[in-house]
Design goal:
The protein has 220 residues and is an alpha/beta fold. Helix content is 50%, strand content 13%. Strand 1, helix 1 and strand 2 form a beta-alpha-beta unit. Helix 3 runs parallel beside helix 4. The longest helix has 14 residues.
Amino acid sequence: MTAGPVRVVLADDQPLVRSGLRLVMADHPDLEVVGEAATGAEAVRLVRDTDPDVVVMDIRMPGMDGIEATRLITAGPTATRVLVLTTFDEDDYVYGALRAGASGFVVKDMALNDILAAIRVVAVGDALIAPAVTRRLIADFAGRPTRRSPRQVEGITEREREVLTLIGRGRTNTEIAEDLFITVATAKSHVSRLLTKLGARDRVQLVITAYEAGLVTLPG
C-alpha cells in the first residue's frame, strides 16, 4: 500500500449500500472512495483503471458475481486486495471467495466503523478471517471428494512449520506467540517469512496451505 489514504472501490449492486459506505468514509481522511461498481465486471474494470488498495466486494451481483471478479482481480499483476461483503447465510459463497483470493470478509449488518476497520486491516496486508470461519473453511476443503495426497511444503524451518500449523488452526499472532513462548514480533516475523517462502498472498492462503499439507486436520 502506498502512502496516503487507502484507495477503495465499492462493488455492490445495491446503491444504498454503496452510498452508506461512501458517506461514512467521507468523514475519515485516511480512506478514499475512488470508484463504485454495480457488477463484478465493472469492479474488474475499475481495478484496472484506478489500481485501488482495496475492493469491498459484494458476492451476489448480476452478470459476473463477486467470486469470479475476485478471481480475476487477484490473478492479475495488481496488489489490490479484496474484502468480501456477505451475510450470515452465504457461507458457501464466502469459502469460494476466499479460495478465489479474497483477503477476508465482513458481514453487511456489522457496524459501519467495524467495516472501515476491516478495510484498514486488509489494506496493510493482513487477512481478516475469524477462527470459526477458519475451521469451517478447513471443513469445506475436507469435504471435497477429490482430495489428493498432502501437498509437500519445502524450504521452511521446523519452527516455521509449527507457526504454519497454528495459522491453520486460526491462531492470531498473539496466540501463536503464547503457544510457542516467543514474542509477538517474532511470531509476526515468522508469518512474514512464510508468506514470502510459500508465495502466499496473505494469511488466508497460509490457512489453505496448512490444510493441504496435512498439518491441520478436523477433530474426530
